[in-house]
Amino acid sequence: xxxxxxxxxxxxxxxxxxxxxxxxxxxxxxxxxxxxxxxxxxxxxxxxxxxxxxxxxxxxxxxxxxxxxxxxxxxxxxxxxxxxxxxxxxxxxxxxxxxxxxxxxxxxxxxxxxxxxxxxxxxxxxxxxxxxxxxxxxxxxxxxxxxxxxxxxxxxxxxxxxxxxxxxxxxxxxxxxxxxxxxxxxxxxxxxxxxxxxxxxxxxxxxxxxxxxxxxxxxxxxxxxxxxxxxxxxxxxxxxxxxxxxxxxxxxxx
Length: 254
Hints:
Blueprint: H1 3-7, E1 11-16, E2 19-24, H2 25-35, H3 39-67, E3 74-78, H4 85-94, E4 107-116, E5 119-128, E6 145-153, H5 157-161, H6 163-173, E7 180-185, H7 196-206, E8 210-212, H8 221-248
Organism: Tritrichomonas foetus
InterPro entries: P-loop_NTPase (IPR027417), Small_GTP-bd (IPR005225), Small_GTPase (IPR001806)
Keywords: Membrane, Nucleotide-binding, Transmembrane, Transmembrane helix
């Protein structure tokens, strides 16, 4: 970008249908020159195509949900773009590190099976997109989630600063309480932009379990999913025992 262009480059946002759409002023200026649109015409065109795109993703999610066995628990990954959500999921499901995974569009789902006390616990791992443009459709994937794994990158301070925003989105949009686990990824990098003690204090103060992972080395990734599986089994057993105890209580007949 040239120096004079940087002077006129700034971020804008507009609200449409309860969604905030972000764009860069310089990008729009270049597109005005190409299409010779007025500002109003271009905004109308942009909103129209954006609405179609969001509609398509919503339809895709509904069709995808119909094809997936709803009896299998859902674990959802959320967090900013580029923090390594997909790399973590690929690592635990295939055992290898994918150095250049394709950006997630909407969400993707992968099955996984974890051994808990000699019993195989099956999950569907939902990998959601972290880009701002997809933020409004992420809540579609909160349905039936038994755990939300909020991921940030140790290489990006902004991704850690966004963690409370993702948790607020989950709490405000989910139709039931969803347990949260914080994951700091790219823990293997030599120079970290996020301080470990700051992360530990945040998680301790808010009573969130946390793991520091590396998709490159595989550090703590298996332990993360074992923790999720063990807690799910323990919670399910506690509910079953409470239900059984309630059914065995004597009832007054008069």
